[in-house]
UniProtKB/TrEMBL annotation, chain A:
UniProt name for this protein: Trk system potassium uptake protein TrkA
InterPro entries listed in its UniProt record: K_uptake_TrkA (IPR006036), NAD(P)-bd_dom_sf (IPR036291), RCK_C (IPR006037), RCK_C_sf (IPR036721), RCK_N (IPR003148), Trk_Ktr_HKT_K-transport (IPR050721)
Swiss-Prot/TrEMBL keywords: Ion transport, NAD, Potassium, Potassium transport, Transport
Stored Gene3D superfamilies: NAD(P)-binding Rossmann-like Domain (3.40.50.720), Regulator of K+ conductance, C-terminal domain (3.30.70.1450)
Listed GO CC annotations: plasma membrane
Annotated GO MF terms: potassium ion transmembrane transporter activity
Residue span(s) of domain RCK N-terminal: 3-120, 233-359
Biological source species: Prosthecochloris aestuarii
Domain of life where this protein originates: Bacteria
Domain RCK C-terminal: 144-228, 379-461
Pfam families, alphabetized: TrkA_C, TrkA_N
Keyword Coiled coil assigned: no
Amino acid sequence: MGVTNILIIGLGGVGLYLAERLVHEGYVVTIIESNPQLISSANDKIDAKIIEGNAMELSCWKRAQAEHMDLLIAVTDQDSVNMIASIIAHRFGIPQKIARVRSPDYGYENSFLNKDDFHIDLVIHPEELIAKEIARLVMRAAANDVIDIGEGEMKVYALRVNADSPIANRTIREIRLAFSDFPFSIVAVARAINTIIPGDDDTILPNDQVFIMLHGNHISLLMHNMGIREQTIQRVMIVGGGMVGARVAELLERDFKIKLIEHDKEHAEELASSLKNTEVLLGDGTDVNVMVLGGLMETDTFIATTGNNETNIISCLLAKHIMNRTNIDPQGKEGKTIALVRKEDYLVLASTIGLDIALNMKISAANEIIKFIRMGELLSVAHLHGVDAEVIELVAAPRSTITKKRLGKLRSLLQENILIAGIIRQNECVLTDDDTHIEAGERTIVVSASKSLKEARKLFQ
Amino acid sequence: MNFPAIASVLGMLLMFIGCTMLFPLACSLIYAEGDAFSFIISIAVATGVGLPLWWSFRRNSELTIRDGFFIVTFGWVLVSAISALPFMIHGSIPSFTDAFFEMMSGYTTTGATILNDIEALPHGLLFWRSMTHLIGGMGFIMVTIIILPLLGIGSMQLYKAEADPGQVITGEKFLPRVKQAAIWLWAIYLGLVMLQAMLMWGFGMPLFDALCHAFGTVSTSGYSTKNSSLGHYDNAWFDWITVIFMFLGGMTFMLHYYLIKKDWESFRQNTEFRWYTGFVLFFCLFTSLLLLAGGTETSIPDALRHASFQVVSILTTTGFTTTDYEAWPQAAQMLILIVCFIGACAGSTTSGIKVVHYEIISKHLYATGKKLLQPMAVIPIRINGRIAEQPVINLAVCYFIVNIFMIFIGGAVMTLIDDMDYFSSTSAVISSLFNIGPGFGDIGPSNTFAHISDAGKWYLSFNMLTGRLEMFSVLVMFYPAFWKG
């Protein structure tokens, strides 16, 4: 496929985040943006050509050398601009187009005007993406998160470590010895704002979020060993009935008991009429009384999706505190919280101060786009939430560095940022250890800090 | 500041300079004039210091804005110091002050020399002296951007801090990635240099001289291999070829790129180029007329040739001479002095106050006046087809004022520390700050900088660097805030 030149329209949250990531990964990025303030703040941050101007003026496209572009990403905050940009891009002969379209009336399979009418290859709807992600997380029982890898045999299980967890304050080596009845591998640890790809001598501390890779069949075993029980019925409380909150309620209301707290009276009435099976409550979702009256004690999952980052984080912390203090369950059942955090700087922190899951629309939209771009280059991609690491599938090329020695001897090359987690042999995914010797043509699952993706790829070339 | 990262980039720079010394070394070996050993020792020193520095800190690559300024300023000083070694080892310029001045003058593309007898130098050293122009013209920090694998944001900081060609104060980057831009700029630059060298060679100049003069022309620098500069040959072909290439070197380098890409639209939009051409034509013709009227020249072709050569040479801050303009009529000399203050186009290999600064300031002046008459008038200032925002205008005015301050303060300092008259002193500062080379009076075209005191030489070296890096990269070092936190 070979995408190298990328044209981004719109330097808002998603545009800037994407541009930064794409430039870092070595793509050549050109951006069209009309707001000079956004430009001047971005100019020092990214090594890209930024054109000041309106994307609806063709002169900007010419200045951007649109005819040499391989991919268009239209992510302004206006659907119409993004859709027309895609048509313009088509005329310039840009082969692939990605556009952010929020309105369900355009750009989707059943819409009046669908993707093909606008020549869009991928429609991005950040709110929809995040709502689906939240719904998916709620549907997974007590697990903090389970991420599929490859064709789904292998999973990554994300687990928050509390002080009395059997793996707290032990090194990776000790943990491996203690739980030797099934194979697993701790592939990443999120601690404060750092992401660690752990080596044998690293210690797991309370409050870490650890990502454990293992075979899908062993998840219940792992949960048993770690003292986590599956929960059955879910009661969900959502604070904030905005686009995301309402959509989550819509997605989940058939299978779960949902309470949605919205502070705006008119909006609450609208929601109440459109969401048939959801209990819509009018009130301030950050008020403890409202929460408790609304039935926080009986809630299993608390989701904060207001428009304010700080409100979401604080109310989740508050909810978590109340749920765990009053919800004294002999089986040690724990309430779970999910916060929508729009500022990525908070995100890494949010996952360590005790929030179970913090999600960011920008990042999930950007991940979706990057996944699309990489389809040709990588076999599959999974993103670990809230950490700066990615799970990728790489195929070892003949005579590539990685095939030269067994893994134990390649330690120095992998540095501290790359972990070869598993390989697929005879159609079965096996976890690697020091003695594994990767052979040419084998599909390998690699966990890599985002900044080292390039190096990781190099090892396999 | 991130000193390990700074050390690694500076180490890389030293290694690069060590490698470039292989060219003059080859030259010394061909001519066998006994200067080869001085290059061998210098290469050993440069790589011996550079390699371990780079190697031990190469994993650090995060550079802040401040690191960028620091690397650029100290990089230029360090490189000039190392480059002075061959002259000192060989003994042709025994004093470090003199050798450093000569090299700083070379790298900053000033072309002011302290050598009274240039022709006495062996060919290897002459080649090295001219080669500093080649390296300095495009900026060697830009080379590190090309060589170093991933500087990330750091590369942008360095590129900006060095005031390299290819940047225009209004408008956007011409290529998305700094590295890409750096490679293109170097390719265009080397292409022009080689083209000129071939032309001069074709018209009968010895290959060695043709190369050295080409190094000094496109970079708009001005070291010649002859005592009487290009006047030595007294050949109209050489003069006109040099005029054309000085003019090309003074053009915004982005325009060369647009020409190669046949992007006429972008070329047409560049108003600075029109002003530049206008300035050049006006001063050339006016000076020719004055020379004819004053009786200095008798034939029209000669008047045009000598006037154009001198005007373009000074306007593009090159500093080659074919005639002693101090023998010209006073009015013609005054024109040359005025032309000193014009430094060709922004984003070229020249220094000093650029045509675009004058364009912005004069349009701003016009708008200010018009607003007095019609207070409600909205008068956008258009430069190169775009509207110049207020910060751009402020920067242009500020840059102009700083330059004028530097000249008058500098002139005063020079008269205090040296025993030159005030006009020669001021002229010396103008000549170094704008990276021209020759000036008036004691440092006129028939004189050198040899007689200036050591303190004066250091002060002028400082001015050359400040001018080459367009003031602020050096001046920020004097802000206490730069060194804190």
